[in-house]
Write the structure tokens for this entry.
Amino acid sequence: MESKQGNDVFDVLPGSRRDWLAAGFCADSPFPARVTPYYASLIRGSDPRDPIALQAVPRAEETDPAGLPDPLGENARSPVPGLVHVYEDRVLVMPTSACAVHCRHCNRRWRRDVAGPAPWHEMLPGWLDYLRRRQVAELLVTGGDPLMLPPEAVGELLARLRETLPASVLRIGSRLPVVDPQRITPALCATLSRWHPVYVNVQFNCPAECTPDAGSALTLLADAGIALGNQMVLLKGVNDSTEEILRVNRWLVNHRCRPYYLFLTERVRGTRHLWVSAARGLEIASQLQRGASGLLQPHVVVDTPDGGGKVPLTPDRVRLHETRAIVTDLKGREVVVED
Ligand code: SF4
């Protein structure tokens, strides 16, 4: 299914452009809108509280200058184009910056501000050369959404990576099962399953995304032996409720996808209206611990810059102040998280 990008995004949404504008949404953003007809079909209407619209349609608040363009500092840790050395034994590669939907909370908006990546096959020799000289336990293939590449390109890319890293885990990050599930086909799953161990991490954020089509996509992947994990992002007005999170996690577990991480919203510039405070994050983390079976509990974390790690959202790591929190990262450094 084709995505709609640019000023005509309202064409695929229910209701009139006037209603959308009146509800505080807008057509223009430095990070242009892009949405699939499928994902748009989950939107109930031009309601500023609609959890899908909040993730897919730009809002006027995106001009708020708070936050950083690249809060995790990934751009500075890219020794070769399209590759980030995340932690000592973990590296990520970004074969494309294309996505089916431009999630409004995306922490890789910065990729649109730097010179666009070269085609993946031009970057590949640099990646392989770098990877050969290092001990890499896990290679993250992310982006953008790597499953936006044609299936034969995905197969060729994984074949070359597996040849270079015969014993590493390959982890693919993709939102296609959430935003365009029909693109998860038996042929694509067969391609992925040739290069095990392959993990696919998805990002389901709210109950409205848990549809029969999305469930079928997860089932296809799981039936191909692919280990599935969900990396949910806490988003104000979308899922900042323990009950909603548990509804999604129950559905995921029933589709053989493990709730893996729940991230405190990264402080990305242009996304302030979606930030959940550290105080609310702590509350949710504690409620999840008390009220749910272990299978339903993700690691509730705040991701920190410069390789500081994914820090558990717990009172011993997070000190609350009036308008901000101080987080002690896994290297013992203090990081400020603004409300
Ligand atoms: S799919 Fe991922 S990389 Fe793409 S816009 Fe959404 S959050 Fe960002």
Summary: The chain has two domains: 1-63, 67-263.
